[in-house]
Amino acid sequence: MQAGAEGPSLGVPGVADYVELLKPRVMSLVVFTGFVGLYLAPGSIHPVLGFIAILCIAIGAGASGAINMWYDRDIDAVMSRTQGRPIVRGRVDPEAALAFGAVLSGFSVMVMGLAVNWAAAALLALTIAFYVFVYTMWLKRSTPQNIVIGGAAGAFPPMIGWAAVTGDVSIDSVVLFAIIFMWTPPHFWALSLFACEDYARAGVPMLPVVAGKRETRRQILIYSVLLAPLAVLPWPLGTSGALYGVGAIILGALFLAGAWRIWRAGDGPRAELAARHLFAYSILYLLLIFSLLILDRTWYLISLGGWM
């Protein structure tokens, strides 16, 4: 357990404080990508069970966030972007946050297993364990590759959604996993370029802190070059059609253009602006890529005159 860094207690914690522990903005993206995996999967699932599966993914993601805030409360107190979190401000007791996260973790996995299937439950348990033990407690403070390896935790939800329907994992769901996995480094490294001092002050070995901004810009460009064609793969695999494929090519080209601007900006006055632009676009990119998958599948089903 990390040394306490909590502020003075501000009274009895409210519902809003516990909701904040769940990292709702992160949870919303996890829920969305999990839903896409469920929607694209072949076969069918009862709507109630589908809702339960997505709810379990949301609860599991939130539980991971709560445990992450408990463990990282010392560095959260140092970083300006996290100083307002409920444990740091003393609004939630650290032990209460840990118990909250642990109970929700066990609850989400058990309900997923009992109500949906144990393959999806096992993947959900793996996701929570990976985020908490591998990323939060090990990688984040020990290596600049923390985001690369740790990004797997955020990439599992489409596989969980897929497994909720099919009971297994396929190459299609692995590709959805790979898209998010490859997207994560340039997304977070763009953030780290303009939040470098924050990470350095907290002692978190993000790539620009350890290897410098030039190497970070180079790695952003490399991962972007790998991401753009990878994101098109659902088209040739037959997971999606031409509507998605053409859209993914366009979105990937824009991502590459943003990465190239970061590389060309160097350490000049436009560098931070280029990093901020790519960071913002990367969020939009992932939302649009997965929205296109939904749109493409919906168009296909409508063209068949029904729903699969």
Give a structural overview:
- The protein has helices spanning 15-21, 24-40, 47-71, 73-76, 94-116, 118-139, 146-150, 152-155, 157-166, 171-194, 196-202, 207-210, 213-230, 234-237, 242-265, 271-304.
- With 308 residues, it is mainly α.
- The protein folds into two domains: 8-169, Tetracycline Repressor, domain 2 (Orthogonal Bundle); 170-308, Four Helix Bundle (Hemerythrin (Met), subunit A) (Up-down Bundle).
- α15 runs antiparallel to α16 (271-304).
- The model is unreliable at 1-6 (pLDDT under 50).
In the CATH classification, which architecture of the largest domain applies?
A: Orthogonal Bundle
Using the CA coordinates, give the radius of gyration.
20 Å
CATH topology of the largest domain: Tetracycline Repressor, domain 2
Largest sheet: none
Number of domains: 2
Secondary structure: helix percent:
over 70%
EC number: 2.5.1.141
Function: Converts heme B (protoheme IX) to heme O by substitution of the vinyl group on carbon 2 of heme B porphyrin ring with a hydroxyethyl farnesyl side group.
Pathway: Porphyrin-containing compound metabolism; heme O biosynthesis; heme O from protoheme: step 1/1
Catalytic activity: heme b + (2E,6E)-farnesyl diphosphate + H2O = Fe(II)-heme o + diphosphate
Describe the structure concisely.
The protein has 308 residues and is mostly helical.
